[in-house]
Amino acid sequence: MGCCMSRLSFPIFPILLLGIYGCVTDQPKTETVSNNPFGHPAAMPARTQTGYAAAGLDAAARVDQVGRRLLAANKQAGLQPLFRTIGAPQAEIFHRGTAEIDITEGLVKQCPTEGQLAAVLCTEMGKMVAEREAVAAPRLHAPELTPPPDLPIGNDGGLSGAADQMHRAEVARFEQEHARRRSPAPPPEPTSLAKTYMTKAGFTLADLDAVAPLLRAAEENNGLARQLLTPPPSQR
Q1: pTM above the 0.85 mark?
Q2: Is the pLDDT of residue 196 over 70?
């Protein structure tokens, strides 16, 4: 009896351990799900070309408000650029074709009034339109008309009598009706355009004079413009 009990009691302890272990390990696990379950490296957020922080909301809102006012009052300019404020401390302003005008927060802060900020933006708009017209002028320049052809009469190839007088009269009339343009009209002057834009938007021209020193300083601080507007060596 004692031997039988010993044989029965021997396997009981391992069985109990297995039961306990099973109860512990069979509990459901909370898996940590990866942010990218497909196994590919997560994409890094795009970095700006400038590396500068975003401009403050106040500066960006001022530029947007004044820019919209200028465009609404000067539809004849045919412009719809994006006014972009860059969070850089230096005073700089430049444009990209006719699509965008970039101004730094540093320059915006140096314009205490809306009129001065409008003067800065109008000056850049004038440069933008002047460049656009300079590029478009050769393409839009109509080919120059030629006078009536000189048709010789007679076997010797010369003109004679009434035909000669008629041809001269036709040439004179042609030159009178179609004055020859020796060269295409020069592009508009940016400052004159800026004055027009300011006046139509209800700003005073005195603000253009007030920002002249700021604009001269901004032209010298052109490092940001060179960085953003100069194509990389592979695209030159």
Answers
A1: no
A2: yes
